[in-house]
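Subject: design request, 150 residues
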């Protein structure tokens, strides 16, 4: 039961003898296109369950330089299409880039979107808004990718 106490209460009870337990669960995402958003909400929820987190905050982290993670609407697929089309317009695949691997646009897009999101958890469930989903953002696929939840 002690592991479920809020950190501040744990601190008050035990003073300097604080032990913070850090746990992580990973899963893979197989992308099929060069630029693709994959709804990973259910997989993140499974990770939260496996980590036995009831109340708190989880970080969803993508350990890649040409992929990202974001939260957006998962009800109307046109929203994701608009996201991809807008990113392609803002950061076209070919342009005035120095990086010689041919995926400079993917690196730029990955940093624009970001490599992590934090999501509250209540009663073991991700606390997302009604229309929100968590999306893995592939910018240089298709590839096998990883997501870390901690
Ligand atoms: Zn590169």
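Subject: RE: design request

Done. Sequence follows.
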């Amino acid at each position: 039961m002690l592991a479920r106490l809020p950190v501040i209460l744990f601190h008050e009870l035990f003073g300097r003898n604080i032990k913070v337990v850090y746990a992580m669960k990973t899963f893979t995402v197989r992308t099929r296109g060069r630029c693709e958003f994959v709804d990973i909400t259910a997989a993140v929820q499974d990770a939260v369950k496996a980590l036995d987190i009831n109340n708190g905050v989880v970080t969803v982290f993508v350990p890649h330089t040409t992929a990202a993670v974001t939260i957006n609407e998962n009800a109307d697929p046109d929203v994701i299409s608009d996201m991809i089309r807008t990113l392609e317009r803002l950061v076209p695949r070919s342009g005035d880039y120095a990086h010689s691997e041919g995926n400079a646009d993917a690196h730029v897009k990955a940093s624009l979107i970001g490599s992590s999101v934090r999501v509250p958890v209540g009663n073991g469930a991700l606390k997302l808004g009604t229309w929100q989903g968590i999306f893995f953002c592939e910018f240089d696929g298709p590839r096998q990718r990883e997501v870390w939840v901690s």
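Residues 77-90 form the longest helix (14 residues).
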